[in-house]
Every structure is written in structure tokens, then in C-alpha cells.
Amino acid sequence: MSLNLVREIIKENRVASRESVQIIIENDIIVPDTKPDIGRILFADGDAYIPNITVDDGNISMDGVIRYKILYVEDNPGQNIIALNINTDFEHSMDVPDVGKGMEGRVKCDVEHVDCQIVNGRKVNVKSILRVKSNITEENEYYFINDIEDNEDIQILRNSVSINKFIGTSQDICTVKESFEVPSGNPSIREILRNDIKITDIECKITDNKIILKGDANIQTLYAGDDKEESIRFMEHEIPFTHVLDLPGINEESDIHSDYDIQNYSFEPLEDEDGEFRFMNGEIQIKIWILGSAKEDIDVIADAYGLRMDLSLEKTKVSMEEFVVGNRSQAVLKETLTAENDYPEIIEIFNVFSRPVLSEYEVGENRICIEGIVNNHILYYSNSPEQPIFCWNQDIPFKQTVEVQGVKPGMACEVNLEIEHSNYNMLSHREVEIRLVIGIASRFYDTVEVSFIEKVLENPTGEGRVRQLRPSITLYFVQEEDSLWNIAKKYRTTIDDIIRENKIDDLDSIGSGMQVLISRK
User: Fold this and answer.
1) Contact 413, 361 (CB under 8 A)
2) Residue 84 to residues 41, 47, 75: CA-CA distances in angstroms?
């Protein structure tokens, strides 16, 4: 007799590798002909992104771009601030033993430190420390047997298993274009010195087969004013954006994980009706990535046997990484920074640029402990005729313990930091009070092992087994580890028959030493 087996399929997005490493990239940057010679570098930092990644057997290779933002003072008595904003390409490869061809790679890159040295007036050497965070996944499909139809001879024991079914991923480029007006009272734009962009207030709404993503792009701009003082000004704008991504199979009951990366941006001054540069045209390209999944409880076959046939069950164990919990919290820092005595005194602060850097974290019982630093550049107008514009750098270390219920040691974790809010106050000619709100986004994952029936085979019944399957009556003494299922399986009967023949009303009343009458017809 052939068995009518019902098979089901489960899709899984298995994490093959999750790495976080530091790399050093060194570049020589040539000053464009349109820019004056470098006299003195004020400060340098940058952003980075990875437009292309290739996953091979045991290796990840990536093509990246660093957007350097260098402010320097020109080499002439005027000592104007000049911006050197240049993109440079880099390549990097990583040996990762557990990855292979066909896997999907997602890599994010943060610039943690930039060291800039003048080679000559037209050339600088730049060394950057980058934090590269890679997440390599593999889509798998598991087929398992979940029913045996049209065979009353077979008894089936089922268990309910909670699994995280993978739906799929979707990614797209969202382009945000807008014109921004210079605030009233500020001078017109002579030159844009630098732009800093952060994405805030991300929200995702799920409809059938689509995700509607909304957020705000916060643009901070430092520019040189077109006034006789050639003053340095700061302005801030915010623009909402919406983008729709297709993801077949997603619905309102699904769970999603979203991520983004600013791929490219450009800003340029724009004239108003009077011919003054009181507007700024901007274009931002945001790469958005979405992963969809659904928590589902399914009944799977835990065991099976035949009343008059022998069955062999082949099981397989599948390790699946499941999302446990996500958390968003804040660390509030308030610190007074003091300029060293050999620095010129502060007359007026143009702006303070702050960047958080994660040093390490430790996952404990219902908590995560985070350590890091915030790197601060204070750009100011000084009392020194030789160095009228100056910048000093000072780090603020921080530690934060975040309570997260359901978290346990050994869980995989992803942590991202960003400056959500910052302001400063000049206390004296050498002291600046800085107040920062650091956003801490963390996601925790655990590995669970699920057992499935992969094959069910009917074995030939030998003469010895045939004799055992003949009608009989047995008086059985219940053992401590017994259940009605394993008693019924052992004697090739059914649980219902045992309950009926022994007039059992309460299944919990089955205990060690109890006499059970088992009859085989």
C-alpha cells in the first residue's frame, strides 16, 4: 500500500555571517584647480557607502565610496574657509568562511575617524578608519511531511511549533528633490561648505503586497555668506518623503525590518527673482531595504505509527534564527569641553559637529550594555590674528545600560547609534557646554531548533511482527515516563481505545503503577 503523503514548504532567510570589522583606507586627494592652495586644515571627516557587493565562496568583496568633507583655510592673508568635498572610490575584500555564491549581501559602512595631512598646497594625504558591518544571508526552502491522508490505520501525534516564515526582501532607491530657502535675516549663499544629512522618524505601513515607507530628511548646511564680512552661517531644513516598495506576499499581519543608506546627494545655490542666491537646490538618493516575515504557529507531525504496518520516520533538525525583540532608546549626555591653553580663545562658535562611535557592547539578562565615544569638532572664530578661524576636536566617552525584556546572553545583536539632537552653549572663552541626545537602535536574534518529518516509509512486515499484531489482551502497569501516546504506540492500538476501555475521564489521572487494560482486535 502506497502512502499518500502531504508535504509543506517553509522558506527561511538564514544568516550565514554577521561581521563587524574596522578597515583603514588611505587616499591622496588633489585640490581642484578652482580651489586655492591649502594653508591650514581645520577638520576633516566624511561619510561612506557600499553600492556594490559580491559574495563568493569564503569571501566578500565590495566597491565603496567615501565622501570626504574637508574644511581648510586658504594660503593667503584673507584666510577664508574653503570646502573640499570629494568622493573617492575604494575596494575591499573580507575572508568569511561560512559564505558562498548565491548568497545575498548587505553591507553598511561608517566613517569613524579621518586623519588628514598636508603634502603640499595642492595635495593632502587622508587616512580613514571605516567600520564595515556585513550581513550575509541565504534563502532556503525546507520540505516536510505534515499529513498522511486516506489511511485510518495510521496514528499521528502533532505538536504546535512557532516559526518565523520568511516572505522576501525588497530594495529600491528613493530620490528626494527639494529647494530650500535661506532663513530670513541670514545673508545669501556665497559658497556651500558642507551638508550633513540624517534620516529620522521612519514609519512603515503595510498593505497587501506593498510597503509604504515615510520619513523625514534632516539637512544641516554650513555655508559662507555673501556679505562683506564673508560670515560663516548654519541653517537647518527638514523635508518629508514617501516611497512605496513592492513585496509579494506581505500583508498587515506580517513583520518587517527596514534599513536605509544615503547613497548620494548634491546641493547647489539657486538664485531668487532678484538674482541673489537665497535658495539651495538639493537631491538625495536613499537606498531602502525591507525584509518581510510572518510569525506563524503550525501543527507538525511529531510521531506516527501504523496499527497493522511498520513505519520508518526520518527526521531533520533545522536551526533557524528568529527575531526576538527590537528596542529604541536614548542616552543623554551633558558635558563641558575645555579648550587647551595653546588654543586661541573663542569669540564666536560657528557650529559643533558631533559623531557617535560604538566601541563595544555586551548582551546580558534582559539588558544590553553599550560603550562608545562621541567625537566633537568645535568650529569657531578666535581672538588670534594668525588663526582667526580655528577648530578643536574633543571626544566624550559614554556608557549606557538599556533594559530589554526577553534578551539573554549569547543572542545575536545589531546596534546602531545616531545623534538625534544636539545643542551647545558658550560658557567662557575656553569652555563650551554640549548637550547631546544619542539614539540607540538595537535588534536581537536567537537561534531555535525545529524538528520536521522529512520521510515516511512503510517497512515490510516480518513473521515475528505479524504474530505480534494478532488479537490479544494485555494488562499493562504504567511507568513513570509513560504517556498515553507511547503506550498506544507500543501496543499498536489507539489512545481513544485505551480511554474507552479503561473509562478514563481525566488524562492527568494517568500515573505510575496504574493498571491499564489493552486489547488488540
Assistant:
1) yes
2) 10, 14, 14
For 468-493, write each residue's pLDDT tens digit: 556 678 889 999 888 899 899 988 88
- Alpha-carbon Rg for the chain in angstroms: 33
Cα→Cα distances 356→26, 413, 422, 425, Å:
22, 18, 12, 20
Q: What is the mean pLDDT of residues 4-11?
A: 87
| Burial class of 444 by CB neighbour count within 10 A (0 to 12, 13 to 18, 19+) | buried
Q: Can you give the length of the chain in residues?
A: 521
Closest Cα partner for 334 from 421, 435, 426? 435
Residue 198 in grid coordinates: 540624517
Cα–Cα separations (whole angstroms), residue 34 to 82, 122, 255: 11, 11, 51
Neighbours of 463 (CB within 10 A): 7
What is the model's pTM?
0.85
d(CA 18, CA 477): 53
Of the candidates 75, 277, 114, which has an alpha carbon nearest to the alpha carbon of residue 192? Answer: 277
- Per residue in 99-154, pLDDT tens? 999 898 899 999 999 999 999 999 999 999 999 999 999 988 888 888 888 777 88
Instruction: Using DSSP, state whether 464 is helix, strand or coil.
Output: helix
